[in-house]
Design goal:
The chain is mainly beta. The protein is 8% helix and 55% strand. A hairpin with a 7-residue loop joins strand 14 and strand 15 (263-274).
């Protein structure tokens, strides 16, 4: 088994074992409703997604980078009208060597924690929004896997999820600035926007497009942007009564830095615990 696939298998196995203890998860929602709930970044849903991103032709030696993002989502009810949705990204990174003899590196990258304040009920026409802050923590276990400076910035999401419509679409934004530049990695100023477009079929099957577009504002203008184009397919399954959202897709980077990957394979398993 490939070394960078082992963490995905182990993590999914661990969460599957945990899910057997949670068979009381609500199952009244239809598969299509569950799919739409999973597609809402600020939905009132406890979930544990495991998203694996395999990036091909990375670095000057055209190696393969693998990033397994463990992304627990936990909503907190602050009143009858408002929720705070916390989203954490814990990246396990398999980094290929950039110079001969350097060797590959595996470890934890920098953890990001986002918190969105969001209305508990959709607005007119199914309009949903959330806004808050993102914190980047210097948790990397090796210098090549992250930056030793803390980061902070704004984050927001807006989407439309209308009852009776098969479409769910919107976008998530954030920008993270380093709070210092004196430690390993120096200053950073990173922008991310993730537009998403989903079409849902009866039975929990859906088509999805959710490219992650990034900009490194500290880089030269011709090395700044990564712009993917692609899409995928997803399906809701059940382990007993526990809903599981699965997804696979591929994205080609039409714009990328010289040492950036030129395409990506993305696979996700999301264990869902509707409230």
């Amino acid at each position: 088994m490939s070394p960078f696939i082992r963490p995905l298998v182990r993590a999914a196995g661990t969460c599957a074992a945990m899910s057997m203890l949670c068979m009381s998860a609500r199952a009244e929602l239809s598969a299509e409703e569950l799919a739409k709930l999973a597609q809402n970044p600020v939905g009132n849903l406890i979930s544990v997604p495991f998203q694996n991103n395999t990036n091909f032709n990375t670095g000057p030696l055209s190696g393969t980078q693998n990033i397994l993002n463990i992304q627990p989502v936990y909503p907190i009810e602050v009143s009858s009208d408002w929720n705070v949705i916390t989203r954490t990204i814990m990246p396990l990174i398999w980094q290929p060597e950039f110079v001969p003899g350097q060797g590959d590196t595996f470890g934890l990258g920098d953890i990001q924690l986002s918190a969105f304040l969001s209305p508990s009920s959709p607005g007119p026409g199914g309009l949903i929004w959330g806004a808050g802050a993102i914190v980047q923590m210097p948790t990397n276990t090796d210098d090549v896997l992250g930056n030793k400076n803390w980061g902070l910035g704004p984050t927001a999401v807006v989407l439309k999820l209308e009852k009776g419509s098969p479409w769910v679409y919107g976008a998530l934004f954030n920008n993270t600035w380093s709070l210092s530049g004196s430690k390993q990695g120096g200053r950073y100023n990173n922008f991310l926007v993730q537009p998403f477009l989903n079409y849902n079929f009866p039975g929990g099957l859906y088509l999805t497009m959710s490219p992650i577009i990034t900009a490194n504002w500290e880089a030269d203008s011709d090395q700044r942007w990564t712009v993917p184009l692609g899409g995928g397919v997803g399906k809701i399954f059940h382990i007993g009564k526990l809903p599981v959202n699965t997804q696979i897709g591929a994205y080609y980077n039409v714009v990328h830095p010289d040492n950036g990957a030129n395409w990506q394979l993305r696979a996700q398993v999301q264990f869902m615990f509707p409230k």
